[in-house]
């Protein structure tokens, strides 16, 4: 599997999360419903092949291991991401993060306020939780993908 | 018939009155504090608050008396021969660091060997590694057998290599397994080794008797035995404490200072640099005094009742992989749900207000041996009830249902 293929498979999955699942999550009536959706989200993303799970893509500060690959299409100045995680709920939450930023330009990514967006989705508690789940580290890693201004 | 009334016991913890909805099973990480402890700490700050060992006033003298009384309480709790064998530290980690650092050069020389075990907490691995690497000392590791108990035959073999120091935990912080410490100390002594016991999880299970156990060092943290965080005890036999080079210097630990030479104060002060955690130590004294009104056998019996109920409940839930053994267990159960990541299971328990810990529990070498990414750890304390056990089981069932849907 090449990076291009993975990106091609990931893009529609993230789009679908953006357009369909986010609303469902917001409307989930209880935690069980919310967690069921989160686990489905993780499943929508194509798994990263084992040999791609290199140290440099590892999201540090994470109790379960997660990997984030980034691709910057310089011709269009758009940022694309590939994600995997050992833990399903974390993967679902990270997928939400990614669908919010996937395809953004450098300028958009630089000013994007992830915390604010997570708050709107009633997901803020997961972000501010102990660093253990790695979401904060993930947010930092996404921000760090911005080319230095 | 046991005289132990868990509701009476539990009612002394303000936390459970203020947070009645939580099932707290993260006791191996830290325990809740009874009112006797929080009151002692608050009383100290509100009515006394003076530094120890130095004030010219009565307030300081009273603080010193209380602080030193705590030392007596600890000494009697673990049946140390002398009160100066009790060194207050910030915790088990600090105590182990002091021992590892302090033995270098005085006892351990380049080319020597030391012996640890496969299931140690990082606090009983990394301080040794840090200093052993720099001083050219070799570390050997006692392996586990198939029931995840230490392999004593292998231990005996490794002792033939004449390690100078053997350091192991009283109770595994992941599995809850109680190590045969009495036997292990005797074997190590027969081989001429200095013995160090990491009692972080053991001390709350069984009040250790230093003179009977006859180990050279025993360490524990106050916060895992109903006491305040930032307190800990380094017990050592006098002759060995004398051989420890102080890790920290300054303050009361000094007798005479010039820029040519400094001489140190006598024990225990020699190893207690700087202003100690006075309120914390007084709180720890209060904790140990408080727990001694209960018969420890009653507490052990109560916990084994909880464990039994938990294990038999777990057997009814499909797909649960239990790492801990029910026998020789101090009250900790490490488990996984089929191939699910432990953090997913723990997150779902958290949603149901069941507090557990997941991950590798600062014992990565154990998990690489187990070949698992981690585990969910349910650690029971004497204030837990059968209702807690049942709520945890129900929450686990719910988690399994959602995860395997
Ligand atoms: C077996 C063991 N040793 C050492 C420690 C370290 O204790 P502390 O963090 O209180 O210094 C712990 C705590 O988790 C432990 O369980």
UniProtKB/TrEMBL annotation, chain A:
User: Domain Fe-S metabolism associated: where?
Assistant: 24-144
InterPro entries documented for this protein: Fe-S_metab-assoc_dom
Pfam name, any one: SufE
> Where does the UniProt annotation place the signal sequence?
none
Would you say which domain of life the source belongs to?
Answer: Bacteria
Family, according to the entry, reads as follows: Belongs to the SufE family.
> What name has this protein been given in UniProt?
Cysteine desulfurase sulfur acceptor subunit CsdE
Q: Which organism is it from?
A: Rheinheimera aquimaris
UniProtKB/TrEMBL annotation, chain B:
What cofactor is needed?
A: pyridoxal 5'-phosphate
According to UniProt, the reaction catalysed is: (sulfur carrier)-H + L-cysteine = (sulfur carrier)-SH + L-alanine
Top-level EC class as recorded in UniProt: transferase
Identify the EC number(s): 2.8.1.7
Keywords, A to Z, come to: Pyridoxal phosphate, Transferase
Question: Is Electron transport included in the keywords of this UniProt record?
Answer: no
In which domain of life is the source organism classified? Bacteria
InterPro entries xrefs: Aminotrans_V_dom, Aminotrans_V_PyrdxlP_BS, Cys_dSase_SufS, PyrdxlP-dep_Trfase, PyrdxlP-dep_Trfase_major, PyrdxlP-dep_Trfase_small
Q: Which residues form the Aminotransferase class V domain?
A: 23-391
Family membership, please give it. Answer: Belongs to the class-V pyridoxal-phosphate-dependent aminotransferase family. Csd subfamily.
Function noted in UniProt? Catalyzes the removal of elemental sulfur and selenium atoms from L-cysteine, L-cystine, L-selenocysteine, and L-selenocystine to produce L-alanine.
Supply the PANTHER family for this chain: CYSTEINE DESULFURASE (PTHR43586), CYSTEINE DESULFURASE 1, CHLOROPLASTIC (PTHR43586:SF8)
Q: What is this protein called?
A: Cysteine desulfurase
